[in-house]
Design goal:
Layout: E1 8-10, H1 14-24, H2 30-48, E2 54-60, E3 65-71, E4 75-81, H3 85-94, E5 99-100, E6 102-107, E7 114-120, E8 129-133, E9 136-137, H4 141-152, E10 157-165, H5 167-176, E11 181-187, E12 190-191, E13 197-198, H6 204-209
Parallel strand pairs: 1-11, 4-5, 4-6, 4-8, 8-10, 9-10, 10-11
Antiparallel strand pairs: 2-3, 6-7, 12-13
Length: 212
């Protein structure tokens, strides 16, 4: 049974559970894996966007003037390279006017700590709603480090979105960044001695891009 964590929201949806099963299956080919990631990302985006703030605007219909709404701020998606790229198209289908930045972090397989190799985000990221995207929240090291990079650049309004999270990663992220809300499609049991999520789904980047 999954533990309850403050500020961690598990998307408990039948279609998400069905597609998480597709992701876990070792026999799922890359094209089916990518499609399932995109569908889950659609639902994650809808859930995350429930709390977006709006401002009123006046528009004219074919019959009269009326009051409508627009987002009160820009939304910026920041996938952690490279696995996070597989989730971006699903988010953009729901938030088509979102901007996209990138953070490149790779894990040192000996220390399990993240190493940065790329960073590029829009100029107005400090005043935007930022959704940091990383399919796997395992040790939490990469996620916590990516959040540090964003906060150093002035980001204050930040959410973390993932497909699968381990308790160890959730604890680390919430310990170091208690102000950041986490959304996930599955909460798994634990990490193995190599820092991989169990039962997990393997390496999300390799399975997305067919580089196994």
């Amino acid at each position: 049974m999954a533990a309850n964590f403050a500020n961690f929201s598990l998307i408990d949806h039948p279609l998400v559970k069905k597609d998480v099963t597709v992701l876990r299956d070792v026999s799922t080919p890359p094209e089916i894996f990518r499609a399932a990631v995109k569908r889950i990302s659609n639902i994650l985006a809808v859930e995350i966007c429930k709390d977006l703030k709006l401002t009123e605007i006046e528009i004219e219909t074919p019959l009269e003037k009326t009051t409508g709404h627009k987002l009160a701020y820009d939304v910026v998606l920041v996938p952690v390279l490279r696995a996070g790229l597989g989730m971006v198209s699903g988010f953009l289908e729901i938030i088509p006017d979102a901007k996209v930045g990138h953070i490149g972090l790779q894990r040192d397989e000996t220390t399990l700590k993240p190493i940065e190799y790329y960073y590029k985000t829009p100029k107005n990221i400090d005043s935007s709603k930022v959704i940091l995207i990383d399919p796997m929240l395992a040790t939490g090291g990469s996620g916590a480090e990516a959040i540090n990079y964003l906060k150093k650049r002035g980001v204050k309004n930040l959410i973390f979105a993932c497909l699968v999270a381990a308790p160890e990663g959730i604890k680390k992220l919430l310990s170091e960044h208690p102000d950041v809300r986490i959304f996930g499609a599955a909460q798994d049991r634990e990490l193995n001695n190599k820092g991989y999520i169990l039962p997990g789904l393997g390496d999300a980047g390799d399975r997305t891009f067919g580089t196994l």
